[in-house]
Structures are given as C-alpha cells and as structure tokens.
Amino acid sequence: MGRAKTTERLQGAELFINSDLTLKKVAEIINVSAAKVGKWAEEDSWEMQRTARQATAEKIISNYYTMIANKQKEALDAERTLTPSEVDALHKMADSIEKLKKKMNIGTYYNVLSEFAKSIATTHLEAAKLLAPLMMEFMKEKVKQLQDAA
C-alpha cells in the first residue's frame, strides 16, 4: 500500500489476529464500519495471520500426543487391545510428530517475524513500517512452499 496504515487499522489487526473476536466485534471495538474492517482483513490477510499465530508446531505436536494418550487410555479402560486400524492411526500420528519436529512451519515463521517486527518498531518505527509489506510477502511465499512440500 502507498499510504500509511491508520491507527484503527493497526488496532483492528492486532485485536483480530491475537484473539477469537469476530470481524464485526473488532469493528464495534475500534468504532469503524464492519465493511471497512472486512476490507482491511482481506487486504492484509488477517485470517492467515491469525491461523499462523495459533497453529504452531508445538501446539500441533501437543495435540497429537494428547490424542495418542487418550486412545491408549480408552483401550486400557475398556480392557481391550488396540485394533490394527487404531495402531496404524497412532503410527501415523507419531510419524507426523517426527516430521513436525524436523520442519519449520508457518506458525514458527510468523512468531519469529512478529517478535522481530516488535523489536524493530520500538527503536526504528519507520523501518518497521517499510518491513511490514516485505514480511507479508515472505509469509505468503513460505505458505506456498509449505503447501507444495505437503
């Protein structure tokens, strides 16, 4: 974008990306029309940023471990052995865990870039404003690379 982002736009992005608020609720909070907030969200890929922020490798791995433990506990509580299909599913989850541990994911990229941007913004605000669109391009490229690798 050629113009500086408004305070409301930046506040809206921060609220939406880092919470479970709807776009409509964000619009109410920052006192901007829902249509305008929706336009900003689309232009700046707020949904992708929210997803990236929430979908870290650590969270996904933790969820897999929980699912494995629950499936094993379920079988123990029922005093039965796992079926071949259950064992296969557990092996697939374990393989996914290993792959995730070895590969950066989009959440990792986003978290590192966010931390970097916040650090730069405290001392070099103008530089941070210039970096923001480049960081978004980088994120989009990484999403594409990770989708192609899947």
Provide an overview of this structure.
This protein has 150 residues and is mostly helical. The protein folds into 3 domains: 1-44, Arc Repressor Mutant, subunit A; 51-56 and 105-150; 59-102. Helices cover 81% and strands 0% of the residues. Helix 4 (46-54) packs across helix 7 and helix 5 runs antiparallel to helix 6 (84-102). The longest helix is centred in the last third of the chain and has 25 residues, at 125-149. The two termini are 32 Å apart.
Secondary structure layout plus pairing:
Elements lengths: L6 H11 L5 H8 L3 H10 L2 H9 L2 H21 L6 H19 L3 H18 L1 H25 L1
Counted beta strands:
0
Helix content: over 70%
Name the shape in a single word: elongated
In round numbers, the mean pLDDT is 86
Termini separation (Å)?
Answer: 32 Å
Short description:
The chain is mainly alpha-helical. It is 81% helix and 0% strand.
Descriptors:
150 residues; mainly alpha; Arc Repressor Mutant, subunit A; 3 domains; 8 helices; 81% helix
